[in-house]
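Bug #2210: token dump truncated for Chibby?
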Amino acid sequence: MPLFGNTFSPKKTPPRKSVSLSNLHTLDRSTKEIELGLEYGAPVMNIGGQSLKFEEGQWIAESGGNISGKEMQRLKKRNLQLEEENNLLRLKVDLLLDMLSETTAESHLLEKELEELKNHSRRKK
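Reproduced locally. Full output below:
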């Protein structure tokens, strides 16, 4: 049995009405246009010297394209790999051309020697 009567039971508070802190919904269209400007435009921000514009749900660099930083790094890395591979292949082609030139020169020398030997043996007969 409680000492001072019933147990503690506070009254329920009535639900609050949702009240907007903005008064823009009360303004008519012409007042909104005067206050906010005729065209709101896409949001633009400048970060680290790079200007970004929010269009169709994505931040796009003003310089063009809608490539993310990660994608740009991946493409730069891939480009570097391809340049290195290209340089290696050029080196291999140069090496193969040198080898071909050397082999061709040796072949011509051997043909010339063979021809001279044939001519020398014909004279002896």
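Output looks complete on our side. The beta strands are 44-47, 50-55, 58-61. Marking as cannot-reproduce; reopen if the truncation happens again.
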